[in-house]
């Protein structure tokens, strides 16, 4: 196997090893995929201001996110169906994050349960992401389970009241649960490494839901539950309600507008994540990096502002930090690594990003990520 030097290498390898329906689930967006592409393209339009003749022998990428120490301003984003990219995917990614010193965020729609991830990581604190469902008793249960698992922050996703149409998923029959069509089964059979790993694990269903949500006792009963439970009535009062019951660090994800950022802070957010759901919801929305500055200006003095969407390199992390982000999230970059090489692939993705972040910071004449600001970028 060729040496892995960048996230693109991991993406190409994941494409070979992961069944098409699950790979396409990661590597695509809604409708025309304009926003999905813009998330990456708009990073590339930002240019660095290179500086020389600085003493750059002692450098540090360490900082904090919501008051918690991190080895670099990067967290693993909550991603659904992670355990279908690689068997036990959430556990492997959480272990890699733990070893690397960055936060791992578990999705409500994960394959491995909160309890399974906690046990597999010796109850090392991780973050948990919550979707607000119509069944508030289920949400309360998720919060208590996250507390029991020693989760150190709760992430509430606000931009999935309804589902954006993702053409690739519809064509591939990717649903909850996935449809085992002849085409999909044939494609899975062509991925023997993936199949063998899946045969070895017991984690093949949505562990946070099956057996916990009312009336959901098996994977087939999950279909109706999912269709009915995502709540279009979601409001800021729900955020305040979750903050009251949780009591700990609360991060609100899915913010694109400065006014929404202010409302999130007013209702209890300790941090907000500027995010368009990876271009998977409203196609035609602004890229995350282009939306970031106005939101930092609006609430950056009152809460941490993080960024999710389009991060494919350490240079992207550095540009986001320069524009005011206190932290960033990797979803696809992590999933490419996981699909390509399992836990080692996630560790490799993190190492690639940190190396690129460290070297690019040095070329800009900075030695501490906490001292990075807009001055490292060219303004044309």
From TrEMBL:
| InterPro entries in alphabetical order | Aldolase_TIM, Alpha-hydoxy_acid_DH_FMN, FMN-dep_DH, FMN_HAD, FMN_hydac_DH_AS
Which cofactor(s) are needed, names only?
A: FMN
Top-level lineage group: Bacteria
CDD domains cross-referenced by the UniProt entry = alpha_hydroxyacid_oxid_FMN
Q: Does the keyword S-adenosyl-L-methionine apply?
A: no
Q: Does the keyword Repeat apply?
A: no
Which keywords are on file for this protein?
Flavoprotein, FMN, Oxidoreductase
The FMN hydroxy acid dehydrogenase domain is annotated at: 1-380
Identify its protein family. Answer: Belongs to the FMN-dependent alpha-hydroxy acid dehydrogenase family.
Q: Which PANTHER family match?
A: 2-HYDROXYACID OXIDASE 1, S -2-HYDROXY-ACID OXIDASE-RELATED
What protein name is recorded for this chain?
Answer: Alpha-hydroxy-acid oxidizing protein
């Amino acid at each position: 196997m060729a040496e892995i030097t960048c996230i693109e290498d991991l993406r190409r390898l994941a494409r070979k090893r992961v069944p098409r329906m699950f790979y396409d689930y990661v590597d695509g967006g809604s409708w025309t995929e304009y926003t999905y592409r813009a998330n990456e393209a708009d990073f590339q339009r930002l240019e660095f201001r290179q500086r020389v003749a600085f003493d750059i022998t002692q450098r540090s990428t360490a900082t904090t996110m919501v008051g918690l120490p991190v080895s670099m301003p990067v967290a693993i984003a909550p991603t659904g169906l992670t355990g279908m990219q690689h068997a036990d995917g959430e556990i492997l990614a959480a272990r890699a994050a733990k070893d690397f010193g960055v936060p791992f965020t578990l999705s409500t729609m994960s394959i491995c349960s909160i309890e399974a991830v906690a046990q597999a990581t010796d109850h090392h604190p991780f973050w948990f992401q919550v979707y607000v469902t119509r069944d508030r008793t289920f949400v309360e249960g998720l919060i208590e389970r996250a507390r029991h698992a020693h989760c150190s922050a709760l992430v509430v996703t606000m931009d999935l009241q309804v589902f954006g149409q993702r053409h690739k998923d519809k064509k591939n029959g990717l649903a909850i649960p996935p449809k085992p069509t002849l085409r999909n089964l044939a494609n899975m059979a062509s991925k023997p490494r993936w199949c063998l790993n899946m045969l070895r694990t017991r984690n093949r269903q949505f562990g946070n839901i099956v057996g916990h949500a009312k009336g959901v006792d098996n994977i087939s009963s999950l279909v109706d539950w999912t269709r009915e439970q995502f709540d279009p009535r979601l409001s800021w009062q729900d955020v305040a309600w979750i903050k009251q019951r949780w009591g700990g660090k609360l991060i609100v994800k899915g913010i694109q507008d400065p006014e929404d950022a202010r409302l999130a802070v007013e209702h209890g957010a300790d941090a907000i994540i500027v995010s368009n759901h990876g271009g998977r919801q409203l196609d035609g929305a602004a890229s995350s990096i282009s939306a970031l500055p106005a939101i930092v200006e609006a609430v950056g003095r009152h809460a941490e502002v993080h960024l999710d969407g389009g991060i494919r390199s350490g240079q992207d992390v550095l540009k986001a930090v320069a524009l005011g982000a206190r932290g960033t999230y990797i979803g696809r970059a992590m999933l490419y690594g996981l699909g390509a090489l399992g836990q080692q692939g996630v560790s490799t993705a993190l190492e690639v990003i940190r190396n690129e972040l460290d070297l690019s910071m040095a070329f800009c004449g900075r030695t501490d990520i906490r001292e990075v600001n807009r001055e490292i970028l060219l303004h044309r």
